[in-house]
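Priority: medium. Attachment 1 of 2:
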């Protein structure tokens, strides 16, 4: 016991020595002018921090300001001169808070304007015109001033005036040279452009529920890049004497009937409430005693990390007749991205599909692709909505993005109704999809008034074209190779018949006839398909779905061949057979 006690006393005697630390604060400094901060100084703490305790560094910059200086610190002085800068260092025991050591380092720091240093000031002259002025506090004679306004325009001299023609953020750069020195300065400017009142269109979306109407102001808005302070402002008149100034207004009528709702939408400066432009629109609503709600609704979503928010979205309600196998768009509506929710009121009971497409998106670009509920790019793969009355909600649509890579390639063609390109039979406004070699859709466009379409600035690679239209089965184009030897591929043409869209080149494949010595039954098929190759004229068969994907590859022998189809999804397919008499095709329905 005595030996142990002596040992503890010995360690206790050594403890203060182990806690001893040396405080020796040190720092360096250097002028560091940047942009309009011509008197900036960079301070670097070079102190060797003690290995015990914890240390706090505090700087007094000599201009009645203090701050933390633990590593590299930039301080902006407001006037030139010589300042006494102090770095205070205190090291304390982290357990007892006892100060182990403390010290202060001082240095004289002289701050002055750079010979070529210049600040930038600007004046908004209105209508996108700005005057920029450079100031050289050092007063250095013979300096030259060069300006780059960030939109491709440059000039020299001081001051300089420039007019911007489109909104956005621009980096204005000033370069000052002369007298053996140079300095570069820059600011970011968001020009305010004049508003074009003719582009303001007031628009109302009104949703009624019993005696209540919810009115949404879907009027044209001013993009932030054009004027960051201008917002929409509403004046509502509900036709029964009631009014509201809410942006989106809710109103309950006391008497059933039909009312005319008037919206006056203003473009208003949110800072000073100045009204720049106004437009008026009306709509009629009929309200009645409360009834059970009857609608189909959902939201439209997109991945904001994949692409920008769309400006406007259109949603279609499409009737699906499973007996006649037809699809017809019976209703549509525009929705705004800040309230991407659709609702079709009072639809009849039946089977439906819904589809969303971004409006005002440049044709042929990747962007957001037309998408069915929930996330299908094809009508045949969309989720069918069975509505039996009442509320059918949550039928959301996840917009699918295109992923086309930029390059020098081009693919184009025409879709006609049978007589051929250039004969006035082109199919206008038909959705055309560009797919990669895995059949992934990477871009979309629409045919023009003559049925022509084009995809340009695409990367080298292998693609195919797939026209998409409700109630039509599509055979995609053969593989299209875009490469150095053939960067432009034109005349990828299609013909649209009453029920199908096929490549023009595929029209040379004859339909199966009785004289071909081959019979296929039953059609429609259920769990199996019989191919009677009685003459042995054909040796190979392929079953293709409406997406152009091969799903079965049965080998044909002479005589009866049985193809199991129970595992296939019900729908329309094409049977392609090959043999010594050439190729033949037959449309097959799988129930």
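Attachment 2 of 2:
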């Amino acid at each position: 016991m005595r030996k142990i006690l002596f040992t503890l006393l010995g360690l206790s005697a050594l403890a203060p020595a182990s806690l001893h630390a040396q405080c020796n604060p040190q720092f360096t400094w250097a002028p560091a002018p940047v942009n309009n901060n011509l008197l900036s100084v960079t301070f670097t703490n070079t102190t060797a921090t003690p290995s015990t305790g914890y240390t706090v560094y505090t700087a007094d910059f000599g201009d009645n300001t203090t701050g933390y200086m633990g590593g590299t610190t930039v301080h902006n002085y407001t006037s030139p001169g010589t300042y006494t800068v102090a770095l205070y260092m205190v090291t304390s025991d982290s357990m007892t808070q006892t100060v182990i050591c403390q010290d202060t380092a001082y240095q004289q720091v002289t701050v002055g304007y750079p010979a070529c240093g210049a600040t930038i000031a600007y004046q908004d002259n209105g209508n996108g015109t700005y005057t920029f002025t450079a100031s050289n506090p050092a007063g250095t004679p013979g300096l030259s001033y060069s300006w780059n306004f960030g939109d491709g325009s440059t000039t020299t001299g001081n001051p300089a005036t420039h007019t911007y023609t489109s909104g956005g953020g621009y980096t204005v750069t000033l370069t000052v040279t002369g007298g053996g020195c140079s300095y570069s300065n820059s600011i970011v400017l968001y020009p305010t452009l004049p508003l074009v009142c003719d582009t303001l269109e007031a628009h109302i979306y009104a949703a009624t529920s019993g005696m209540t109407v919810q009115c949404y102001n879907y009027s044209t808005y001013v993009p932030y890049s054009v004027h960051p302070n201008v917002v929409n402002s509403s004046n509502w008149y509900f036709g029964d004497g009631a009014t509201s100034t809410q942006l989106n207004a809710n109103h309950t009528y006391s008497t059933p009937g039909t009312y005319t709702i008037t919206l006056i939408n203003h473009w208003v400066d949110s800072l000073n409430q100045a009204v720049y432009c106004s437009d008026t629109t009306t709509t009629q609503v009929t309200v009645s005693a409360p009834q059970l709600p009857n609608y189909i609704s959902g939201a439209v979503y997109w991945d904001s990390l994949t692409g920008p928010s769309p400006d406007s979205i259109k949603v279609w309600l499409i009737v699906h007749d499973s007996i006649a196998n037809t699809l017809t768009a019976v209703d549509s509506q525009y929705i705004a991205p800040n309230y991407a929710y659709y609702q079709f009121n009072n639809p009849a009971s039946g089977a439906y599909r819904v589809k969303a497409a971004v409006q005002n998106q440049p044709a042929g670009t990747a962007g957001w692709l037309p998408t069915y509920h929930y996330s299908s790019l094809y009508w045949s793969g969309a989720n069918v909505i069975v509505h039996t009355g009442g509320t059918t909600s949550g039928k959301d649509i996840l917009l699918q993005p295109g992923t086309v890579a930029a390059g020098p390639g081009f693919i184009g063609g025409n879709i006609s109704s049978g007589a051929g390109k250039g004969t006035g039979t082109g199919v206008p406004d038909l959705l055309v999809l560009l797919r990669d070699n895995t059949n992934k859709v990477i871009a979309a466009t629409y045919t023009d008034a003559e049925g022509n379409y084009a995809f340009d600035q695409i990367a080298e690679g292998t693609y195919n074209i797939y026209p998409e239209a409700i109630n039509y089965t599509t055979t995609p184009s053969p593989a299209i190779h875009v490469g150095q030897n053939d960067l432009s591929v034109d005349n990828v043409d299609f013909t649209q018949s009453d029920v199908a869209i096929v490549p023009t080149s595929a029209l040379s494949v004859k339909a199966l006839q009785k004289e071909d010595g081959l019979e296929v039954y039953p059609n429609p098929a259920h769990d199996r398909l019989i191919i009677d190759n009685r003459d042995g004229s054909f040796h190979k068969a392929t079953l293709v779905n409406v997406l152009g994907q091969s799903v079965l590859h049965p080998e044909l022998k002479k005589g009866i061949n049985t193809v199991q189809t129970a595992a296939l999804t019900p729908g329309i397919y094409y049977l392609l057979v090959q043999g010594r008499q050439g190729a033949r095709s037959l449309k097959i329905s799988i129930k």
